[in-house]
Design brief:
The chain is an alpha/beta fold. It is built from 16 helices and eight strands. The longest helix has 21 residues. It binds a DNA duplex (22 and 22 nucleotides) through helix 14, strand 7 and strand 8.
DNA sequence: CATCCACTGGAAGATATGGCGA
DNA sequence: TCGCCATATCTTCCAGTGGATG
């Protein structure tokens, strides 16, 4: 029997679940928006802008609200011709000093082809170049520094910029800084004088709870998903998973998007909780593999030492044993081994990344030390390593040992 | 109760890379 | 070319840790 049937895809507009999508309205952040608008009011009134500092976990709407409000602000301010507003936005994730942030700002402001290189100048020279560009803009300039915590305690720029006018570096331009941080402890790392100025207005974005996430998901799903694509309990499940973990809307949306993709790949039309569960596992794996890809050669070798020990069922495992394993891996790969202290540093880094876990042993006369083990599934780890390291024979033999030991 | 083990983690300094300006 | 600058990654050195041991 032949039959025609309308084919409904899962997605109507997948982008609406994506990173770069800018929704027309922001859900569940009314209070924060209220306070934020108040902090921005001086710009409208023609005064010098406040410096604003936002903090909260990733995916709780800091960047989304900022983009949304600054767009509103730029539109609404056109009504007043005595205010001339420019906005410069910069994500500092990959920039880990004031110097690099300043270089990036200069390059953003300069026309294509006249960018400056990222080393070589004394710091103050770069700052002066920045002042020159800012002065050329004139009026009010709002500089948004997203993920500003990545500069750590090298905060000279955050000291300089708010004082540029008072110090005579700027005359025609009033600068307002908006710093966005995912790290609660970032403020404490800053020079107290920087804290004073940068945190003039401070806005905290709390994590979303499950009902809030559900509302956000529902409003996005209306745009993104086809009718009838949402199985029962799916939004609730995504919301619950994300709320339990991080309270991040980003995470909840990623879950829904990936679950949708998985559904589509299986030629289904309705996302089920099972699809969400698979999406969760896949996202977790991607996160870990991403972390591993960014390791240096010796970071990878240190991790591979743990993987190898795991294959031999020798974990948890103390630093000295891991170091020995690491040295043999270095030998067989023709890399010269680093000192134990350095490997210890790499192991610490891996712990920070959540790839390894360590528990302290206080065994008195035999010393205090950490025992490390993998904090991710063995399979994910070895697969990522296989992607990354060029140690095929070693990885092959580790795999063999692992299967012998039934790991 | 002092001592000691076998680390951890902070700090300073070395080395290498890549780039500026004269 | 030389002297400087910023940065990443390592090495070397060392104080601190806290329960077991004598």
């Amino acid at each position: 029997m032949h039959r025609f049937e309308r084919k409904e895809n899962v997605f109507r507009n997948k982008d609406a679940l994506g990173e770069s999508y800018r929704p027309e309205t922001i859900e569940e952040r009314d209070e924060e928006i209220e306070a934020y608008m108040q902090a921005l009011q001086p710009v409208v009134d023609g005064w010098e802008p406040n410096n604003i500092f936002l903090y909260g976990n990733t995916g709780v709407g800091k960047t989304a609200v900022t983009n949304y409000l600054l767009e509103r602000l730029q539109e609404d301010i056109e009504a007043y011709d005595d205010v001339d507003l420019s906005v410069v936005s910069l994500n500092c994730k990959t920039l880990n000093s004031s110097y690099q942030v300043a270089v990036e700002l200069v390059n953003d402001l300069r026309p294509v082809g006249q960018e400056i290189s990222s080393t070589g100048y004394p710091q103050q020279t770069v700052f002066n170049k920045l002042y020159k560009e800012l002065e050329a803009l004139g009026g009010t300039v709002i500089i948004v520094l997203d993920e500003i915590d990545s500069i750590g305690d090298r905060d000279e720029l955050l000291y300089e910029l708010p004082r540029a006018r008072a110090n005579g570096n700027l005359e025609d331009t009033a600068v307002g800084l908006i710093g966005i941080s995912n790290d609660f402890t970032f403020q404490d790392q800053l020079d107290p004088r920087v804290q004073d100025t940068l945190c003039e207005r401070e806005l905290q974005f709390p994590p979303y709870d499950a009902p809030e996430l559900e509302n956000i998901l529902r409003s996005r799903a209306e745009v993104a998903l086809a009718e009838g694509a949402i199985g029962s309990g799916v939004l609730e499940f995504c919301a619950a998973l994300a709320a339990r973990d991080s309270g991040s809307a980003r995470q909840a949306l990623d879950l829904l998007r990936l679950a949708g993709e998985i559904t589509e790949n299986h030629d289904h039309k309705e996302i089920s909780q099972d699809h969400v569960e698979r999406a969760r596992l896949q996202l977790e794996q991607e996160r870990v593999q991403q972390g591993m890809r960014e390791l240096t050669t010796h970071g990878q070798l240190a991790l591979l030492a743990v993987v190898s020990k795991t294959a031999k069922r020798d974990t948890p495992c103390r630093t000295r044993e891991l170091y020995e394993e690491y040295v043999t891996l270095c030998d067989s790969s023709g890399t010269s081994a680093l000192s134990q202290r350095s490997v210890h540093n790499h192991l610490s880094d891996l712990r920070m990344l959540g790839i390894l876990s360590a528990h302290e042993n206080r065994s008195g006369s035999r010393g205090n030390y950490y025992s490390y083990e993998l904090d991710v599934p063995f399979e994910s780890a070895i697969e990522a390593m296989a992607d990354v390291v060029r140690l095929d024979t070693e990885i092959g033999s580790i795999r063999e040992i692992a299967s012998l030991n039934d790991v």
